[in-house]
Amino acid sequence: MTQTIVIAEMNNNAVHPSTAELIAAAMTFGDAPTVIVPCTEAAAADGAANMGAGSIIAAKSAAFAHYDASGWASALDAVTPQGTLITGASSQSKDLAARIAARRGLAVIQDAVAIEGNNVTSPVYSGKAMQTVALAGPAVISVRSNVFPPASGGASEVNVLDTEGNVATSVTEFMARASERLDVGEANIVISGGRGMGSPDNFVHLEAIADTIGAAVGASRAAVDTWEAIPHAMQVGQTGKTVNPSLYIAVGISGAIQHLAGMRSSKYIVAINKDADAPIFQHADYGIVATWEEALPVLHTTLKSMMG
Ligand SMILES: Cc1cc2nc3c(=O)[nH]c(=O)nc-3n(C[C@H](O)[C@H](O)[C@H](O)COP(=O)(O)OP(=O)(O)OC[C@H]3O[C@@H](n4cnc5c(N)ncnc54)[C@H](O)[C@@H]3O)c2cc1C
Q1: H or E segment and range at residue 74
Q2: Which candidate in 96, 137, 146, 197 could, as Cys together with 244 as Cys, close a disulfide (CB 3.0–4.6 Å)?
Q3: Model-wide pTM > 0.70
């Protein structure tokens, strides 16, 4: 197998902890990978220390101040060694993976959920089927979060390479996320509400449980479309975010195929719905046929006593 390189997952110019999972994914191909950290200040690359990397390169460029697809792809292409590239599977990183693959004439495999030998598995048709691709050479692979246990140890020293990108767009305003709550795409536990919650005000009951167990709060598209107070950033599904938590709790969500597309690979799915025939129950590991008004208070009390 050729050399494997990880493009660090970045969040607000800092290395995101999920980069350690990407390093673990890269290590299934052999040696500890080189990690490239796109940054404006080399100090940001210190965040990749002790994540299992073989070596760390700070790719320093003004182009990395804000995400611009062509600027990032060209700046990274200039300093990234040839080989198989591993990126995260956030919408930004999937975009970047495709751009770099196109520049290098490599195959791209998006949203990988397993790597065994040269075989890479990823969902297709909105998660209705899985495909396994046998790599015949270097490729670009975006890896879904919460699939590989994070790597640790490894390099902490950073080499700095200056690079330049052809920035095609400029950011005139950067709007920070309004909520400081955990993002659904990053959380290990997600509790989501659907139209069955009846009102956006009732999401406080989901938030209370989320605070107890350290979960993120998500929503169905019907909830997002119906209520202005529920932002698109919370939407899980085909046109929202793909999540892969250990535990996904769906409350008042029917289980439409487009919602399932974003959460069906969760390790455990719990559904609370008053309709015993709701499709979500066909995909749930545990189902509670009840209104949320009945079920959530009991669930919250039980979880609080379990959490001490
Ligand atoms: C192109 C396209 C893309 C889409 N992308 C997405 C997407 O990304 N994400 C997404 O979620 N959807 C998406 N959809 C929409 C999807 O088809 C469904 O319309 C949507 O998921 C339904 O949301 P829901 O389950 O919250 O609402 P509903 O289908 O209205 O279901 C509400 C559920 O709540 C239950 N309920 C009602 N009252 C209570 C109560 N008191 N207690 C407990 N249960 C109760 C009902 O029994 C019902 O099952 C997309 C659709 C299209 C066409």
Answers
A1: helix 69-79
A2: 146
A3: yes
